[in-house]
Amino acid sequence: MDVIRTEIEGLAIIEPKIFKDQRGYFFESFSEREFCEKVAPVKFVQDNESKSSYGVLRGLHFQKPPYAQAKLVRVVKGKVLDVAVDLRKGSPTYGKYAAVELSEDNHRQFFIPRGFAHGFCVLSEEVVFQYKCDNYYAPQSEGAVMWNDPDLAIDWRIPAEDVILSEKDSRHPLFKDLEDVFSI
Q1: Is 118 assigned a catalytic role?
Q2: Domains of the chain and CATH, by start
Q3: What string of pLDDT tens digits covers the 184 residues of the chain?
Q4: Listed residue (8, 166, 152) closest to 88, CA to CA
Q5: Is 137 assigned a catalytic role?
Q6: Which of 61, 106, 107, 183 lies in the 20 to 30 Å Cα band around 130?
């Protein structure tokens, strides 16, 4: 696998080695040994999958310590814009975000360490999205940032009128109103 470091410390784009022939393709989607050597020493404990249609935006979510989560995300079917926002107070990139297009065609994965809010927007007709987490889901620890926060100014690559949100995702606080959750 090839690892592409982003401008934000800790975030990484992973490109697996794809083996194609007349039958189709094969790739190793995860190797703990290689991931720990090349990306970060993380032990994943939970895998999740969601299915969504065009315009669905999930996020920007995080879990507060001690239940914070690192995530390794990928698309099995379709295409998303995946976004991670740095919430680490004291980081030189605090409040900045990185975005990457993940698709069934590029097979890219995005590693988001603890200390980031995460979300994605579906750009294709439908998407099947998978992610690994290094900590279990803890509902009492949920946190989030509003998807269209003007200070973050994320370009989700679809018109705002096409965005489909859950009731919960439509009422998150603005970035400037977040309590100090993660310090470095």
Answers
A1: no
A2: 44-183 (2.60.120.10)
A3: 999 999 999 999 999 999 999 999 999 999 999 999 999 999 999 999 999 999 999 999 999 999 999 999 999 999 999 999 999 999 999 999 999 999 999 999 999 999 999 999 999 999 999 999 999 999 999 999 999 999 999 999 999 999 999 999 999 999 999 877 787 6
A4: 8
A5: no
A6: 183
Catalytic residue among 97, 107, 118, 131: 131
| Contact predicate 45/32, CB 8 Å | no
Task: Report the distance separating Cα 123 and Cα 158, nearest Å.
Answer: 7
Catalytic residue among 54, 61, 136, 137: 61
Q: How far apart are CA 90 and CA 4, in angstroms?
A: 24
DSSP 3-state of 100: strand
Residue 66 CA to residue 135 CA, distance in Å, equals 9
- Kindly report the pTM of this predicted structure: 0.94
Greatest Cα pair distance, the chain, in angstroms, is 54
How far, in Å, CA of 32 to CA of 38, rounded? 10
